[in-house]
Amino acid sequence: MGSVRSVAGSIDARLRNAVGCLPLRRWLSHLSLSAFVILSGSQARAEDWGMGAANRQVPTGGVFSPVSTPASAIATLAWFTLAVTLAIFLVVGGLLAYSVIRFRARPGDEPREPAQLYGSNPIEFAWTAIPLLIVFVLVLTTVRTIYDVQAAAEPPDAIHVRVIGHQWWWEFRYPDLGIVTANELHVPLSDPAHPTPTWLVLESADVAHSFWVPRLAGKTDLIPNKINTMWIDPHQAGIYLGQCAEFCGTEHAMMLIRVVVEPRSMFDRWVAAQRMPAASQEAVAHGQEVFEGNACASCHAVKGSSARGTYGPDLTHLMSRQTFGSGVATNTPEHLKIWVRDPAQMKPGALMPAMNLSESDLDDLVTWMITLK
Amino acid sequence: MAGSIDDRLVLGARDSETVPGVAIPFAGRVHEWVVTVDHKKLGLMYIGGGLVFFLVAGLQAATIRLQLAVPDAGIVSPQVFNRLLTLHGTAMVFLVGMPILTGFFNYLVPLMIGARDLAFPRLNAFGFWLWFFGSLLLYFSYIGGGGMEGAGSAPSVGWFAYAPMTETPFSRGHSTDYWILSILLASVGSTATAINLIATAFSMRCPGMTLNKMPVLVWLAVVDAGLMLVALPPLSAAQIMLLLDRYMGAHFFDTQAGGSALLWQHFFWIFGHPEVYVLVIPAFAFASEIIPVFSRKVIFGYEVMVAASCAIGFISLGVWAHHMFSVGLTPAGNAFFVTSTMLVGIPTGIKIFNWLGTMWGGRIRLRVPMLFAIAFLFQFLIAGLTGIILAVAPFDWQLTDTYFVVAHFHYILVGAILFMIFAAIYYWFPKATGRMLDERLGQWHFWLFLAGFHLTFDTLHFAGLAGMPRRIYTYQPGRGFETPNLIASIGVIFQALGMIALVYNIIRSLNSGKAAGKDPWDAWTLEWTTASPPPEYNFADVPTVHSRRPLWDVKHPEDPDWKYE
Fold it and tell me: Is the ipTM of this complex over 0.90?
C-alpha cells in the first residue's frame, strides 16, 4: 500500500506545482522524495533464503537434458525441428546476405536503372512446392510424437497422484496410498523392464496454473473445472526443478516445484513414513496448543492433531521437505520462524497472514513444528 | 497560453495561414487538430499518440528488465511488477501497434490511390477519439483502479487476462474494468477504421487504377482491415461477457459457478492470433513499398504477393489454438492446429522469397529505411522459423509460456514490426513534414537499436530453453537464468540510446532538416507526385494512372510499366 499512497502523493505534488509554479529546485526535491518513497515502499527481496545454495546442488539442465520418456520424445523431435529450421535459415539467410552484398549500389554504377523483372511463374512454383514438402514432413513427425505422448496407455503398475494447483503452492495427493503432501513431489524410479510411471491428474482450486518440470515432461495446464492428465517415467534418480508456467497472480514467480525421484525401495520407505500421523510429544505440547488454538488450524492439517484445515498445505510431515512456501526458502527453524512471523517478508502477497504471535509462543510453535518429521 | 479576444477570433480561420506575419496562436492550432477530419492529420495524430505511448510502455519494459537483471532483485514489488507486465503488453498492442499502423494506412491509402480523403472522414475522426480516450482509460487505472475497496490499482492480469483471474473473487477493485473498457473502446474504433479503409480502397480509387493496379500497400491495407473486421468482434463480445460476469451475475468465465475458463481462451485467441497478423501485415506493406524503391526494381511477383497476403489472412483465422497446446486438447485437436499453423509458413515464405527476388539483380541503396528493411528480412525470417518450432506441439509443451515465446514474439513485434515502423518513419517523414530526417543520426539509431535488440532478444531464447517461465517477477540464483537475463537487460541500454537518437533526430529535423521536395527517394507511387507536406485536398487534379507505378511511367516514357502488366 505504501507505493499506492506515494503515487497519489506525487501526483498531488505535481498538481500543486502545476498550479503554483514552484521553483525548479523544490519541484525536483518533491520528485526525488516521491521516487524514494516508491522505491522504499516496495518490499525488497535481496535475500535468497538459502535457495541459491540449494539450487546449485541440483544439476542444471533444461529441455535438452531429458530423464523421462515424454521429455526424451520431445527432445528428439526438438533436435530434428532445430536441424530443419537451421538448414532453412542458412539457405534463405545466405541468399539474403548474398543479394544485399552482391547487388548493393556502388559509386561507379551506371546511372540507368537495373533491368526490371516482374516475376516468374516457375520460380514461384518452386518456392511454394519445396516449403510444402518440408511442412508435410514436419507435420507427420510432429503428429506421431503427439500421439506417442498423449495417447500412451497406462500400465497396471502406475502410481497415481492428484496435483492440485493453489495460489501459490502445489498440493500432491496419492489417493491409492493415502498420502497428502505439498510442493515436493516424490515418485519412484521407473525401470524400463518393469515400468512404474507416475500418472498425474491435474486440477486447480482457484485460477489456471501449469505444471512444468522440463527434464521430465512438457507442461500441462491445471484449469479450474477441467481435469487434465500427464505422465512421467523418470529413469534417473535425483531432484528435478520446475515451476508454475501459467501466470496465476502475485506470487506466480514463487510457485516452484521439486520432484524427488528415488529408487523403489526408498520411495516405499518414504510412503510408509508419510502415512504415519504426527506423534504428540510432551516436551513440545505448548507449541501444538499454539497451533491448534490459533487460526493455523483452520487452514492447515496435521494428522494426529485436531488441525484439519484444507486451505493451506498439509503440515503432518513438514520437516520431511527440503523447502517450504513452494520453494521460497530452505526448511530451517530460523527460516520457519521468519515465515510464521510474517510470510510477506519472504513471499509478499502470500495468502497466509502474519500470525502476530508473541515471541515465546512463536519459539514454542516452531519447536513443535520441527518435530513434524 | 490563454489567448486574447483577438486570438480567439482567429480560431479555425485557416486563411490567416497565408497572411504574412500573422501566426496562428497555439490554441488555434490545437483547435484545428482537435476538430480535423483530414485523414493526414488524423494519421499523424495516431502515429504521434502511438509513439508517446511507445515511450511510456517502453519505460515500463525497461523497469521490467531492470528488475530481472539479477536474481532476487527488489526494484519493484511483485504487485507492481505484474501491473507493469500487464500494461506493457496491453499498451504495446492496443495503444502503440494498432494506432501507429492504422495511422500509416490512414495517411497513405488515400494518397496512394489518388483520393482526397478516406470514404468516411467523420467516422475516421470518431475512431481516433474512441482510441484516444480508451487509451487514457488504461493508464487512468493507476489512479482510479482502486475502487471503493481500495484493492488494486492498474490491472495485473496479463495482456491476455486468462479467466478466472479476471473475475471478481480474484480481481477486486476496478483495475480489470478499466482494462476491459479501454480495449473495448479501442477495438470499436479499430473496427470503424477497418470499414473505412475497405470502403476507401474499393470505391475511391483514381481513374485507371483497377484493383490489379493498386499498390501492394493498399492491397495489404484491405487484407489487414478485413482481418480486423473479423477478429475484433469476438474480443469485444468476450469483454462484454466478462463485464456481465463482473457486474450482472453472469457466469460465462466464472469457474466457481460452473463457467468455463477455456471459453475465454478460445475467444481471446480467435482474436489474438489474427491480431498478430493485423500488426505484421502493415510491416509487410511497408517492406513491399520500401524494398523495391531502394533496390531500384519493380516488386517481384505482384500477383503472388497479393495472393499470399490474402492466404495469410484466411489461414490465420484457423490457427488460434496453437496458443493452447498445453491446455489439454485431444491429440486430434492438437494435430489440426499443428497443420494449420505450419501452413501459414508457406505464404509467409513466399513473401520473403519475393522480397529476395525484388532485391536480386537490383542496385540496393543502403539508406536508413532500407537498412531497417534488410534487418527486418533477417529478423522476420528467424521469427518465422521459431514460429515453426513453436508450432511443433510437443516442443511447444516445453516452450509455451517461457522466455522462448517471449523472445519469439518480440522478434515479430520488435524485430519485424517495429523495425518496419522505423523504416516507414524514415521513408515517409519527408512526405509528411517536407523535411528529411538526418541520415547520420538515422545510422546511429539503426546500429544502436540493432545491437540492443539482438543482445536482449537473442539471449532470452536461451533463458526459456533453460526453464525460465515468462511473467515471473524474480528468479532464484543457481538455476542457470542469471547470464541470459543480465545480457538481455544490458541490451536495453543500447535500445534506449537508439530511441534517443530517433527522438532527437525527429525534433531536430522538424526545425532544421534538409528540404525534401516532392519526391526525395526517386519513388514511383502517387503520394510522391504531390507537395510535401501534401495540401489538405491532396491532389489539385485527380491523377489518372495506367500501371502500378505511375511515376515510373512518367520517368521512363520509353519503357513504361503498363506494357508488361
Answer: yes
